[in-house]
Amino acid sequence: MYSEWLTDDGCHITQEGLMPGTHRPMLHRDVYLSRGEEGETFEPLFTYHGFRYAEVTGAGGTVTLTALKVHTDLAPLCSFTSDNAFLNGIRLACENSILACAHHAMLDCPQREQNEWTGDGMLSAEVIAMEYDAYGMYYEWMQKFLDDQAPSGRLPSIVPCRSNWPFNFANGLDWSSAMIHIPYYAYKYTGDPAILHLTMDGMERAMEYFATRSDTCLMDFGVGDWCSLDPPCPIEITDTLYYRIDALMLAKMCEAIGRPSERWRTLAEEIRRDFRKKYVKDGILTVPTLTPLVGAVYAGMLEGEEIATAVRMAAEIVERDGYALRCGVHGLRMLFDVFGEHGYNELVLRVLTNPAVPGYAKAVADGLRTLPESFLYRTRENDTGKYPSLNHQFTAAVDGWLFRYVAGIRYEGFGQSTLTVAPCLLDGLREFSATVRGVTVSRSGDRLTVTSPVPFTLRLGTHSAPYPAGRHELSV
Asked: Are 244 and 216 within 8 A, CB to CB?
């Protein structure tokens, strides 16, 4: 039998983490009937198990177990090492969870539901498209999205749709936005428009369905800021933020393949107008908690000094909470870009190296080598925690911060034609080396090395200049 959890005495596994109270009885178990001969071997070929612990019962002699990693051929195009053990542990956890959840599509987790939740795939789409050879997997998954999409444009929350999960369960605007985000990022990091030609009609039908759910551009029928440690952000806010992001993405994709885009840019401004009318008063958000603040900046809902004010207020919340990120998955998806883009990278580094509060660093300190579904998980020291999954890939957006902001490797347009390298020189990180799609940025003390197969623009402090392809060493 297989499990992520041990009994309180540590002697056996327990399958409590499979949530038997809310799902039909599930077991991760293989049964083998021995012939009674020496040297028998068994390998399950038509299933896989996600686990931390395995327990063998009923064996009459010595048994040797060998664990094999199995996943879709999602070849890594990235690497990251540094002089910081927490960042290295977070990078390892991201890669382990991404690969463990890659089984013909992106699953939520490999040990419990093993379902292709659309929102989980949406939340990790950028980091996976950037850091892995994922185009083929995403193209095939989008074919299944189109197969399952209703004539109205509505999508199920799990694709392929499962007979034991109702079509209309948990399929709000936020989860269904995967139909738009996944093709966008697959195209962004490869420049191959085939996935756009495949999905464009389906993306537009999804947006047209969203419009039927409200008399205004404010949407309120999503899953919401899942796994928030604090009371979650109102669903109307997260849904409406994604609605605008979707419209802007769709406009860019239409322009890329020569389709009219004006209707989507007009919609994006109408969404912004309706959002501001309800949620922005005197330049301040009326719900000034972490996810609304970073989300409003990320989705372009604010203007002028409102942006700096919102980012500062978000940073103050993180500091007040003891340098913890207590928002849910939507806030985690957006805040690393918002803090990174607006110069709060030292704050992010402090958060990611702080094991005193629930978060990524504590998970590393607790010995986890994968990303937990919720940071309120149970440990030997904390038996009041919950039994969530200990291997969920949907909080992997943190990985993007290591490559896009620490190393500063940013593809600004579609494909690799517009590359900017803008590394952060953080006081607490003197040594690192990061590679994404053939571009390597390394820091060793006061020396910075950039190697790129394509021309790029280097931004370093006040310095900004174009550089040809090749290897360049600079003093920082």
From this structure: no
